[in-house]
Amino acid sequence: GELLLYCQPKVEMASAALCGAEALMRWKHPQHGMVSPSVFVGLAESAGLITPLTHWVLEEAFRERHRWHESAFEQPLAVNVSARDLHDPRLVDRVRGLIATWGTAPGSLQFELTESALMETPEAVIATLAQLRDLGIELAVDDYGTGYSSLRYLQRMPVSSIKIDQSFVRRLLSDADSAAIV
């Protein structure tokens, strides 16, 4: 009962309009207060506990997106999914069950996958991504530009968008090379 779901707004830069949100898991420890995901997610991955955390965040994200729908707030909600999750043979069935439980419309949820997760074993991941896309889950590459993927691999991935890594975006106005890449 110490995990929380925070929703960080996404804004379209050109119009400044809200275009969705990203679901972020937070841990409110009774003695240590808010524990950074950079601490506990890495520990969960190394301890083999990332799958239960993913199950929790998926359930909460689908529940939250359903609340939004009930309130006539129709914005997509993005969830981060790890490389290990993409290799879980039960992931697609779990997502299918959540869609059925919460009546989630296609395009209402988006999974964000790091570039490194996609490049780890691209052939195995492509099939899982295609199944998720066929369920109506939008797919996005997160932190693009920090790994070693090529545009050829990106072309083969069934993703609808990429999020360029903040190291390029942050220097967009002050660094011509970053601006050219973005």
Shape: globular
Q: Name the poorly predicted regions.
A: none
By DSSP (H or I, 4+ residues per run), the number of helices equals 9
What's the pLDDT, averaged over the residues?
A: 88
End-to-end separation in angstroms reads 40 Å
Total number of strands: 7
| Percentage of residues in strands | 25-35%
Order of helices and strands: EEEHHEHHEHHEHEHH
What level of helicity do the residues show?
40-55%
Largest sheet: 7 strands, mixed
Structural class: alpha/beta
Please give the radius of gyration in angstroms: 17 Å
Can you give keywords for this protein?
single chain, 182 residues, alpha/beta, 7-stranded mixed beta sheet, 9 helices, 7 strands
Provide a concise account of the structure shown.
The protein contains nine helices and seven strands; from the N terminus they run E-E-E-H-H-E-H-H-E-H-H-E-H-E-H-H.
Detailed description of the structure:
- By secondary structure, the chain is of the alpha/beta class.
- It has nine helices and seven strands, in the order E-E-E-H-H-E-H-H-E-H-H-E-H-E-H-H.
- Strands 1, 2, 3, 4, 5, 6 and 7 form a seven-stranded mixed β-sheet that branches.
- Helix 7 links the parallel strand 6 and strand 7.
- Helix 2 (50-70) packs parallel to helix 4.
- The N and C termini lie far apart (40 Å).
- The model has no long low-confidence stretch (mean pLDDT 88).
